[in-house]
## 1
Amino acid sequence: MLEEMVKVPGLDGEKMGKSDAENAIGIDMDKDVILARYLSRGVTDKGRTRRNDPGNPWACRAVYPVHELVTDGEVVNRKIARQCAEAAIGCRDCKQLLVDNIGKILEPFQERRKELADQDGLVREILHEGGLKARKIIMPTIEEIADKMGIVTY
């Protein structure tokens, strides 16, 4: 059971969800598309108007919190935050680093998806086998519920 839920910010800095496709990053998106989305819609520090202005990474509601989720290592995250605060990197640089790290995570899934794309029979077989296993697990509960509700199956 999850003890603590993780909120993944969307491009607008609010919760990312699949119901608003324009606010989300898809698992099958190319890095160039992800970067274009972050560059055009990713909310950053509104107080930072020029590249050489010091920034506040925690004011970047759509960028820095995602770095904390996907960028490998606390030391790297602190370095990015420090560079932002010192104006050593700009928002575009920060977004590029973020997209590179998102790409590292998505790449294995995208490669596997490409491998399975032409194997429709295998995918159907895996889903069928999974369904059979799930039925074995859930049948006692379904039978108990049906019995309590007085539902008779023939």
Note: Helices lie at 31-41, 64-70, 74-85, 91-117, 120-149.
## 2
Amino acid sequence: MLATVTLASDATTQDCARAVRAAWPLHRVVHLAGVRPGEDLRDYYGRFFDLVGRPVPLGEDASLGDRDHQRSGEIWMEVRYDPDIPDAYRHSANAQPLHTDGSYIPDFPNAGFLACKSMSGEGGATIFIDGPDVVAALKAHAPDLLRRLRATPVPHARSGDRRVEPVIRENDGEILFNWNYYCVDPHVDEETLALREEFFQFLRTDKLIVENLHRVRMKPGEAVLWKDDRTLHGRDSFNAKERSERHLWKAQVQVDA
């Protein structure tokens, strides 16, 4: 599921690319640990993207408007603590529930990426769970919920995009997810809304879900790359007093490694 690759502090973008090309076929999440670039993270990891695939300009900016008008057209977006923007997970200190980033975007790239500029003193780990572990928990404790998650097309919508897929589906034997509680179209029927609530609570409370979470708490300079539709990811809450105390740069990448 998770590969933590520890590199030298002065690792080059080529070093990072070699590590990802080796780990990506066998793992869902690759944590590039130990790296301390002596330059802007976006420049450094932007060159890395060109060595493993290509970035896709799907950035969003909460300052541009409401949830339907935040697409910036940029590659990078900030995930930065800012108490002046209280209603956006990207800028809050709250725990973020498990989700996929591409839930509302058709033809979404296959990977999410985060690079750490600064990290708060406590908490703030990015959390992941493998798709098969979610399905195993559902089979054990909520088989009827699993059946409905596979059978029900669930519309997700945001920023002018809309995607309709079952929350759980399979392709060539791979379990795929399309899920974000806060992006499910609120105008769906009552049955779909009830399904949304039930799965949300299951992910928060099921014992097997909690036991199978993987945590990556990055240090400044480090990065994590993950397969978006084969995992669910979220965030632990954290303590922060100063603006930008936890500051990550986020991008979406089509990885060809």
Note: Residues 131-208 form one domain.
